[in-house]
Protein 1
Amino acid sequence: MDMPAPDELGRVVIGNYSKAAGLPPVVFDHWLHRAMYTCRLCHVDLGFAMQAGGTGIRAADNMRGFYCGACHDGKRTYGGKTIFAACSDSAAGAGGGRCVRCHSRGRQAPREYRFNEFTKKLPGENGMIDWEKAEEEGLVSPSDYLEGVSIKRPKLRAPKDFSLEARCRWMPGIIFSHKKHAVWNGCEVCHPDIFPVKLGGAKFSMLDIVDGEYCGACHGKVAFPVAFCNKCHSK
Ligand code: HEC
Ligand code: HEC
Ligand code: HEC
Ligand code: HEC
Ligand code: HEC
Ligand code: HEC
């Protein structure tokens, strides 16, 4: 069970097409983007796969306003500031090294947001950011809506929290909060792809989680690592 460095948790390298086009692969950081937007917005409304490289993003998609280009279009703003544009047909005229801000694998790319500075005011433990607390305390309030892309819809009520047995005597049971998860994930990130809408419907073990399935589809990749046993086994 590896313990990633806090700034590396959720760092995704996207490199299906860049190299052949003579550019370094793209590096995407969850810690920056999840502070601004919900998981649901990107993984449901914008259709990003929950697997590194799984979406198969092309430069042409970005230029047409899909994927990264839904925000990185040189027009949309965040907090009053214009978001820099994604790909273009040529690197010529990409003043200020815009391409290398994303196509940055193995490069000393200029960065506007540095992990240590950005997360200085956020709560954490053992060097990991406690996003749950950060959200509760209003230090981050990720947006769940993107004008022109998302559809306004009524929020579904989250079912009550439930607990799961650990099927062994030496680990406490697990408490799962629907309400806390829905803040980030809505309902559709988990249902029906990761979990059936039925208590006891999924049969899985700790090994499956460590393998990146069920709870492990997020925990250990973007959400807190599996090594934090007590955060789940808290009953
Ligand atoms: C701004 C958009 C955005 C937000 C917000 C976002 N993601 Fe992602 N996520 C991505 C992209 C892009 C990828 C990589 C997809 C690809 O390479 O095709 C990704 C990949 C992933 C992966 C796969 C990682 C791997 O190593 O294979 C997981 C798991 C994931 N996201 C979970 C989450 C969770 C949980 C949240 C909320 C806490 C979240 N994402 C928020 C865009 C986002
Ligand atoms: C939902 C909107 C959204 C999506 C989708 C999105 N981003 Fe961003 N991204 C932002 C915003 C907002 C910023 C902050 C821009 C600023 O302040 O200049 C940002 C900043 C960045 C930065 C700058 C980091 C730095 O320190 O300078 C990189 C790199 C980046 N995004 C890469 C990507 C990549 C790659 C994708 C697609 C795989 C992507 N983003 C998809 C909204 C988004
Ligand atoms: C906001 C992030 C972002 C920026 C900025 C960006 N790109 Fe991309 N670009 C991507 C992503 C993501 C991919 C898919 C990477 C992969 O799979 O290798 C990509 C892929 C490409 C490809 C691969 C060929 C193809 O058919 O998809 C080319 C060429 C490309 N970009 C050109 C550029 C150029 C030129 C610039 C600067 C003007 C640029 N990009 C800036 C995100 C970005
Ligand atoms: C982080 C993942 C996740 C998210 C997000 C999520 N669920 Fe669930 N849901 C689960 C799990 C895990 C189960 C239990 C599945 C099992 O035992 O096999 C479940 C079970 C259920 C059940 C059946 C059990 C019960 O308590 O009635 C319903 C109904 C349900 N979810 C509705 C929702 C709704 C509505 C939302 C959005 C507000 C939502 N879920 C968001 C993971 C999630
Ligand atoms: C779709 C992604 C996803 C899945 C699947 C998922 N989680 Fe989470 N979970 C998150 C995110 C995001 C947070 C916020 C904290 C963070 O990112 O570290 C979180 C927070 C938590 C917390 C702390 C909040 C609290 O309730 O006090 C617990 C405990 C937890 N998850 C347990 C589970 C368990 C158990 C499962 C499987 C039944 C599960 N999670 C499945 C994304 C997910
Ligand atoms: C993200 C939440 C989460 C974390 C973190 C977590 N577990 Fe679990 N664990 C679960 C869930 C959910 C189950 C119950 C699976 C089921 O339905 O039987 C489980 C079951 C178990 C079981 C019962 C046997 C089995 O394989 O299912 C053991 C033992 C266990 N966990 C040990 C650990 C240890 C040790 C750690 C820390 C290194 C840990 N867990 C971290 C969620 C978690």
Note: Residues 26, 28, 32-33, 36-37, 41-42, 46, 67-68, 70-72, 78, 81, 83-84, 101-102, 111-113, 146 surround heme C (ligand 2) (CB under 6 Å).
Protein 2
Amino acid sequence: MTVGTILAKDSFQLTPSGEIQAGPLFLMEEMKPGYNKENGDWAYTLIMANGDIYGTSQGKGAENVTFCSDCHNAAEDQDYLFFLPEEYRK
Ligand code: HEC
């Protein structure tokens, strides 16, 4: 991805009574080369459904989003992105 690319993934939660509620928003932003060589210069941000920022890389609550790169680094060979498994892509 080119510098400045932002990927956003929304989510929802299903309550035990069957209600659907908005869940957190997951963001990945491709930063300039050298931002963080260990994770391909991606910045991770997690925004809660009420708008609060739970954490953002190298910013407020950075320690809350280190788990993002811990997992996404497993996809280093495809620019740290997972996308849907191939059989579900159309
Ligand atoms: C345990 C592994 C794991 C963790 C931890 C994780 N992700 Fe992901 N992420 C995935 C997988 C697998 C996908 C692709 C499937 C999907 O979209 O659910 C994905 C998809 C994404 C996408 C869409 C682009 C893509 O790679 O497909 C974004 C954006 C994203 N994650 C951001 C985050 C952020 C921000 C965090 C931390 C708050 C985070 N992820 C934590 C595994 C993880």
Note: Residues 17 and 23 are 16 Å apart (CA to CA).
